[in-house]
Amino acid sequence: MVLGLLSGRWRPKVALAATAVLIMVLVGVSRVYLGVHEPTDVLGGWALGVAWTAGVAAAMRAHEDRARRQVAAGPRPGTGRL
């Protein structure tokens, strides 16, 4: 799944994201249906998952932006980098 998300093509990304969302919904609904969790438990888990995913995505984007700026700036004099 991670390799598909890291690929440059958009179709595998959309397919994997849709599959992941479908699995999350089905598992959450099954937990409530089987009576092992309350609806608020499932909603809280989904909210936590969304928050975590947003945080990781923001951190990855910041890292990629910083790396692009460093490459665009080129080597800095006196750093010993080629």
What does this protein structure show overall?
This protein is mainly α and 82 residues long. The chain has one domain. Helix content is 78%, strand content 0%. The chain has helices spanning 2-6, 10-33, 39-73. Helix 2 (10-33) packs antiparallel against helix 3. The protein is elongated, with a radius of gyration of 20 Å. The two termini are 36 Å apart. 0% of the residues are buried. The mean pLDDT is 85.
Please sum up the structure shown.
The protein has 82 residues and is mostly helical. It has helices at residues 2-6, 10-33, 39-73. It contains three helices and no strands.
Supply the key terms:
82 residues, mainly alpha, 78% helix
Q: Strand portion, in percent?
A: under 5%
Mean pLDDT: 85
Gap between N and C termini: 36 Å
- How does the overall form come out from the CA principal axes? elongated
Topology as H/E string?
HHH
Structural class: mainly alpha
